[in-house]
Structure formats: structure tokens, C-alpha cells
């Protein structure tokens, strides 16, 4: 599928202290996919990222900026971006990091994969996918986290924590965004689980993820522990639900 076939696309780029990366990544994205719009969602970065975003938006009408006053996490920033993009009438709403980990030159692969998919994920942990320059500890955290997600939530998606993705508009409309409570990176897994629960199709395409060379990751122990806590809660709730359904079926049969 090409950009012309899928309709209007916007890539949401959340930023917190990405002054050294933002112009570089937005320019790459605009060059790689001239038909795709960009929304930067900045949480009042103290390093002036918001001013840089305003400069980019002033020079290019296809770049827009949403300024938020406080840092409330990746999930909260994306929720604000999704609501803006839905109100603006976009057909496809995407996610991408600002630090160059997600390569705009690979976005075309995700757009092509929208044929027959409601959510496309640029995945690291599928055949053909890769990660460049991550230490072993971060690889283990990501692979272990994804394994935990698959086991607890009973889903087959291999890279549910990945943040390079495209949602079709109807997917975000069907997933009730008002019910989403995840604020940190677990938001990514939350949205995959909700998409599958809604009976929609998730497709993974391999990407090469490159660790940032400028600035710092915003991954903290709090972000990791929110992920662990929420995935465990959802997994246990799902198990209880399955047990309740099995009991109800047994009762029905014995009547
Ligand atoms: N607005 C806003 N942006 C944020 C916040 N926290 C992080 N970001 C932005 O979100 C992007 C990703 O943050 P990083 O801190 O660079 O993430 P990473 O460690 O490389 O993250 C990897 O793991 C995440 C969780 O699985 C993935 O979501 C991400 O795609 C990537 O694979 C960056 O553009 C960063 O500025 C926040 O509270 N507010």
C-alpha cells in the first residue's frame, strides 16, 4: 500500500529533552516520506526542545506542535497526540521516537503492511528485525519483557513494547482511549492488547532499531516497575476471567 492509498498520515513524535535530536529526525522523516505530516508532542522540555519544534513548525506547514506543561509520561503524551490527530481527521496515526532509534527511511515498510492490518508494528524481535548498539542488559530487559507479555496476556505479538507503529483511525476509535490508564512505556503493550481484544488485526514488520547516539533514554526504574505491575495485573485478571468462563461452561453442561 502506498501513502496515496491509505489517506492522510500523521506521525506523532513525543519529546522530552530531545534538543540535539529533534530537527535531525523531523528533517529525515519529511525527506523520507514527503506526504506524511508530523506532530511533535513536547512536555515542556527544559532543554528548549519545544522552541526547536516551534521553529520547525514555522518553517513547514506539515509540522505541528502540541505543548504540554508537565512531563506526564510517554503514554499521556501519545494520548494527547491521538486525540489531536483524530480531531484533525487523519486516516492513519503513527508513533515514532525522536532520537533516531526508529529510522524514517523504514516507515515505507510499515505503510505497505497496512494492507489487511489495523495496527502495524515495526518489530525488533521477529525474523529480519534487529537492534544496533544496545547493551546486553537492555536486550534482555526488552526480550524478557516481551516474553512475559506473551505468557501472561496469551498474545502472539513478538514485540508488543515497540514504539514505531501505525494505527488506522478506526483502531483508535474502537479502542476506548478514555479507559487507558498507562502512563509510561507500558502504554505500548496496553494498546496492542486492547487492539487484539477489539478483534482487530496486528501485523509486525521487521525493522532495525538503532540505539540513540545523542541525549539520554527516559527509561527509569519507575517506568519499568509500572510495566511489570500492570502486565501482572492484566494477566491475573485474564486468568480469573478464563476460569470464570470455564466454570460457567461446566455448569451449563451439567444442567
Ligand atoms: N512528551 C514526552 N515524551 C517522552 C516522555 N518520555 C519519553 N519521551 C519520548 O519518547 C521517546 C522514547 O523515549 P526513550 O527514552 O528514548 O525510549 P527508549 O529507552 O529508547 O525506548 C525504547 O523502549 C520503549 C518502551 O518499550 C519504546 O516505546 C521505544 O520505542 C523504544 O523501543 C523519545 O522521543 C522521548 O523523548 C514523556 O514523559 N513525555
From TrEMBL:
Keywords associated with the record: Glycosyltransferase, Transferase
GO BP terms, alphabetized: glycolipid biosynthetic process
One function term, GO molecular function aspect: dolichyl-phosphate beta-D-mannosyltransferase activity
GO cellular component: membrane
Domain Glycosyltransferase 2-like, chain residue ranges per copy: 12-174
Top-level taxonomic group: Bacteria
Alphabetical list of InterPro entries matching this protein: DPM1-like, Glyco_trans_2-like, Nucleotide-diphossugar_trans
Family to which this protein belongs: Belongs to the glycosyltransferase 2 family.
PANTHER family: DOLICHOL-PHOSPHATE MANNOSYLTRANSFERASE SUBUNIT 1
Protein's name according to its UniProt entry: Dolichol-phosphate mannosyltransferase
Amino acid at each position: 500500500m502506498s501513502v496515496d492509498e491509505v489517506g492522510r498520515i500523521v506521525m506523532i513524535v513525543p519529546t522530552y529533552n530531545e534538543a540535539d535530536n529533534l530537527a535531525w529526525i523531523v528533517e529525515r522523516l519529511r525527506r523520507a516520506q514527503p506526504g506524511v505530516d508530523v506532530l511533535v508532542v513536547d512536555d515542556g522540555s527544559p532543554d528548549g526542545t519545544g522552541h526547536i519544534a516551534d521553529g520547525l513548525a514555522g518553517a513547514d506547514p506539515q509540522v505541528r506542535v502540541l505543548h504540554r506543561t508537565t512531563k506526564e509520561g510517554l503514554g499521556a503524551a501519545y494520548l494527547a497526540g491521538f486525540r489531536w490527530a483524530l480531531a484533525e481527521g487523519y486516516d492513519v496515526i503513527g508513533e515514532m521516537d525522536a532520537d533516531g532509534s526508529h529510522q524514517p527511511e523504514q516507515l515505507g515498510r510499515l505503510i505497505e503492511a497496512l494492507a489487511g492490518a489495523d495496527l502495524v508494528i515495526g518489530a525488533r524481535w521477529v525474523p529480519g528485525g534487529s537492534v544496533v548498539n544496545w547493551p546486553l542488559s537492555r536486550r534482555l530487559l526488552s526480550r524478557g519483557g516481551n516474553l512475559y507479555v506473551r505468557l501472561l496476556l496469551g498474545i502472539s505479538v513478538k514485540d508488543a513494547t515497540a514504539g514505531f507503529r501505525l494505527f488506522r483511525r478506526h483502531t483508535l476509535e474502537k479502542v476506548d482511549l478514555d479507559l487507558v490508564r498507562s502512563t509510561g512505556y507500558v502504554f505500548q503493550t496496553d494498546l496492542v492488547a486492547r487492539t487484539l481484544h477489539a478483534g482487530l488485526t496486528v501485523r509486525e514488520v521487521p525493522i532495525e532499531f538503532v540505539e540513540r547516539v545523542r541525549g539520554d533514554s527516559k527509561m527509569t526504574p519507575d517506568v519499568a516497575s509500572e510495566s511489570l505491575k500492570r502486565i501482572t495485573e492484566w494477566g491475573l485478571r485474564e486468568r480469573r476471567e478464563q476460569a470464570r468462563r470455564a466454570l460457567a461452561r461446566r455448569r451449563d453442561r451439567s444442567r
